[in-house]
Protein 1
Amino acid sequence: MTSSPRPPHVDGPPDPTDRATAPAGEAARGYLLDNARAEAGERFVRLAELFDGVTRGHFDRLGVGAGSRCWEVGAGGASIPEALAAAVGPTGYVLATDINPSWLKEADGYEVRRHDVAADPPPEPGTFDLVHARLVLVHVPDRARALATMVAALRPGGWLLIEDADTALQPLACLDDSGPAQRRANRLRDAVRELLARRGADLRYGRTLPRVLREAGLVDVAAAGAFPIGGPACNHLEAATVRHVRDELLAAGLTDAAEIDAHLAAIDAGELDLTLAPLISAWGRRPE
């Protein structure tokens, strides 16, 4: 799919003041960047700009094509389910799941289900040619159970593709820590990482992916990394993320409103060369 990313819910985002848009238990599980806030839509669009080309390249490498059966886990936005639907065509099947699937639309050629990969059994076990999750397991406290669920959904010979960040491997927002604005950005990145860790995220998870795939019984395991540095998509993603977690940062005493506002102003002014943690993609095949 070559079209530009678009907001993934054509009817508009869920009302960020309506917490009922999130399923019961999502807040209790402590997911910091939940789908119920308007900022989630902006994050999905910018993540698509930054990483969808990388992810689609892996789909091509793993042989996703006409007739393939694919499960997109923790889909969030619509861009990857749409790309998979375009790749598999009318003879294939794409299932997109999320604990809060409100940003997804079945009319775009894929089926949507509410599903918690760390708590629910696998849908249609043993039937999928590809199971994919991007930036999901790093946030799931019971990662081992979630991974086992995804492996169980594969047919013999099917591929599991997991893509997750390793924020401990590269923790900075600005690699060039050259001035007050850059140092402020790095302090706030540390604060967001602290919030993630408190919610059960594993900030070192990305680097473990090849090992955990082998330990799950997969073969032909390999991995690659992507590391975007600078540009409008990084800027927009940073601003959306900081706005998303602003209240949590203030409530935790990790920063103050003046520092957040100054950081957002520096982003808007184009003063920062922002970067992200590396996205590590790892894949393995269920033995025949």
Protein 2
Amino acid sequence: MSIQQGGRRRLDSSVPADYDVPTRTPRLSSPTVAGAAITVTFAAWVVGTVGALTAVVAVGAPEWIQRPSAAVLMVVFVVALVHRGGGHMRLWVPPAVMLAAFTLLLENNSLLASAAVLTAVTAAVWSVMVTRPAASVVGSLAEFGVTIVVALSGTVAVAAWNAPVNYQRFNILVLGAALALAITLVWRLGAGLHGMGRQNFAILVGVAVVVILLLAYSSFVRTHGSQTLTDLFTELVIWMRETFRGVPRPVEVFLGFPALIVGVSLRSQRREGWWILVFAVIGTSVLTTSLVTPGAFPSYIALSSLYSMVLGVGLGLIVRSRVLARRTSRAARQVEPPSRVEPGRLAPLK
């Protein structure tokens, strides 16, 4: 009698796994028309990004192309996000087009601020929604790169609007709106909190606690911190500016970017990984609003963002190795499910 060797049991991999969220039928039934629409949208995104980049990089381009480029990017972000979330174009795209047109024609301060907010919010959320599940370290790093590229296009678009806003209020408004929008979309994709495992729920609660502690501590230090502690932080920031020409942003390092790495990795196993990506929107929101004030130095913001990315990715990979590790012998003996699948990057998720 032969003795069956131990080890992890695997499901039949010859049958591909199905996507676990129902999707609507395609709006454009013709593959040719759908491909043309994607090509036009991508071309508009590239052209708009190049035009908006002239607001940050001095290349001798005329200033009049900056706001039209930002308007093009705002409409592209809305179209892409509505498509990715499975929404109705006729409900959301026409108001965005009207806002872009009236803002360019009237150049009213309130309209400029509204357009900048919509641009920052949609870019921050779409940069996270456009990601795909990543089962490997290389894949998670690639998805991180895709997110950063999209978010940076939103950053230059906000800078190109050159809206007269208060940075603190603008940042809070964008952060709150982006979080609300991300939670709404993820609730639909993740089936709410139903079916979330104990480990995933603990991760979600842990990340939420980190958010609260970071925001509460930073607010406490600014308002009630001792003069010695305030001076210490101020001197540390000044030293880092003089030495490294940039200062990492704690929200991105300890929360936004690690959540992005962990979220796309966990999504390859369970769709509840979307809930971790809600907190990644905090990092992309900070990135898209970093150049909203005309007095911001692009070189300083670029170096600060780079340092935040390096530290955030490093921390994210450490947390990823702990989250995805099988800690018990019971977990090692269970049936290993196939990798979770999702529609393509340019296909709707709902």
Protein 3
Amino acid sequence: MSLALFKHYNKPLLLLALPLLGAHLAQTGMSVADTIMAGRLSAVDLAAVAVGTSVFMPLLLLLFGTLMATTPLVAQANGAGNTQTLARTIQQSGWTSLLIILPIAFVLYNARTIFDFMSVTPEVATLGANYLKAIAWGLPAVAVFQVLRCMCEGLNHARPVLLISVAGLLLNVPANYVLIYGEFGFPKLGAVGCGYATALSFWFMAVLLALYIHFEKRYRNFAIFGIFHAPSLKEIAATLWLGLPIGLSIFVEASLFTVITLFIGEMGRFTVAGHQVALNFTGLLFMVPLSLGLALTVKVGHAIGAKRPTEARQIAFYGIGLSFLVALASSLFMLLVADWVVKLYSPNPQVQLLAASLIQLAVWYQISDAIQINAAGALRGYKDTRIIMLITLFSYWLIGLGGGWWLAMTDNLWGAQGVYGFWYGLIAGLTVASSLLMWRLNSTSRVRI
């Protein structure tokens, strides 16, 4: 690997990835704020946010992933110099989002059935179900924001998304404070207040981004809101054909964590709370390789749109090399700060001890997780999305969840490992996924050349 080429390709990748990272950290910061602020109230509220988030996040990522089809569509059109059809593309993505948020809303409003089926303790299940009903009010805003965000990222304009995401976080924290603890005359809603505060932040961000695009000069020639485009079944189907495998791939990975959390739900509120703290913290660090992966989608898409397949391959593999170095640094950071970080989330010693031990386990899958998300990001730049779905389904559910359940819940060779067994399964599943996705990327990029 040439150091000169490493710098050449990764400098523009970082310039795009850093604003994406800031936006992801700000948005993930809402979940972190919910977890910390609910955890300071009680272990029950923290557990309710945990089981509620475990249902909401995979569905949110299914929406986000499907609409991510907008990014390579915009990136390749921009790379080819064809920006006349952007308004139609964006509006058709908007119509597509409506088809997705309706079933998501149905699931959120009936989540208590899921919790009861998975034997979540009644106190936690009731509070978690009400948390999801509150957050469901923000779904239309999430859809609008994600479509417009993908357009900005596809055009290499990630900074406004960053600034607006930070503004959303700055609103979320005081809104949490008021609604969770019942300040300034508002009722004390606990975990449910987290849901309403997050929904409010979603609407705030969507309105701000729409106003920015409407008034910003660089977008005026695209006439995003200037001409109304009625829904086209053909174009919606084409968007779903490209985007649904992306959404399902991300959903498969995220739902793995959901099912694990729900299985753990019967192990008691302290186990659920410790598991949630570990997931929340490691998920925050995961935003770095995730942002690099999204930037790879854009950069590879630009190169393919401009008919430069050799450059696209080099961008992909040098970018994955960068993600490997980032994962090494992330692993070291986790080892150094785990004991200190868990104390921010909960004052309970049982929660702290379990969370710290799970974070130490998570160190083992940082590299494979970073590689698989960046290989998948590069493949999306090639519009090679369906194979990602098959690989992730096999790796996460058969190897990760199946193996984790066997280690955690059965009398196997090592005895039932409890919550730790599921985390061992995560390590195995992510390792298999990274190997298979790298093989696919190597094959796809060679064929294009």
Protein 4
Amino acid sequence: MNQDSYFKLDPSQVDPSDTRPILIVPYMWIGDFVRGHTAVRVLKQRWPNRPVDMLATSLVAPLLDYMPGVRKGVVWNLPRSQLALTEQWRLAQALRAEGYGTALMMPRTWKCALAPALAGIPERVGFVGEVRFGLLNDWRWGERALPRMIDKKVALTLPRGTHLTMDWPPPQLVVPAAEMAAWRARNGLGDGPAVALAPGAVGPAKRWTAYPELARQLAARGIDVWVVGGPGEKPLADAIVAAGGPRVRDLTGTDLRNGILALAAARLAISNDSGLLHVAAAIGTPSVGIFGPTSPYHWAPLNGLAATLQCDTKLSCQPCHKPVCAVNDHRCMTDIGAARVLTVAGDILAGLGITAAPVPT
């Protein structure tokens, strides 16, 4: 889609005179955090001279270094499933010192709105959610009528009553070429074309099972393969490396920056419906998304994908959005064969001018 065709604010809604900083309190899952950059882009349309900061955990903080339009991150690791009043108060003091004029609370939880309220940020915008009267002073309604999470996020950046056209600008991550080259050199990865595989996902139902065979076939054709993900994907990476041999490298680990740089340096990314699919797409790396129990309309990246793969025959249980398959023996994923993904990958690589070697006989 041409950049000029994305959503544009009416000129009467644009205010270049306002310079007060804005704080975004986003969801802290990797994919949702990446989606949050669309909100940044819309905010910069509305208030081109207001700095935009994002609250972040240490896990997702590396993404901020590659997000145009974000001034900085406020990195704070609030404990999960706890109110943690002492930590909330300390965070509120840090926010107060920044002089924010507006805070946008993307999650609908009571907890996420507490520190901005304690900090006395004058404009606190969010959906009512968990009955957050008193914590918010710009309450928004109608969240459940918005079809996608991205629509809910962007609605909070706009004046109340704005017509939502749903053609939002996609997230962007900009990774300098010099940083990619230095990362490849540090890891001894040479300069040949590589395909990045992201086999992880939240819940086993979203995990495609044929990555080892795909890696074996790619490696046999002379393509380097990098397996990316968090420490939880280490067993999956071990199986993929064992199947693919020396051309396959395990790049999983605890530092998300490593995954960002791998996805940026790769010529193609192949991923389940996961946070790393959103990272690759936002970078602009051609990406293949493999979807089973989830709906691409609701959960695929806004950036668009080189290919979106689902099983050929739509099952009656799709989409279920369940983390564990309860019926059909995971057919929505197992019916997608490695040969089909390999053909799609080969076509994309050929379009990039990368010709795979024939398989040795």
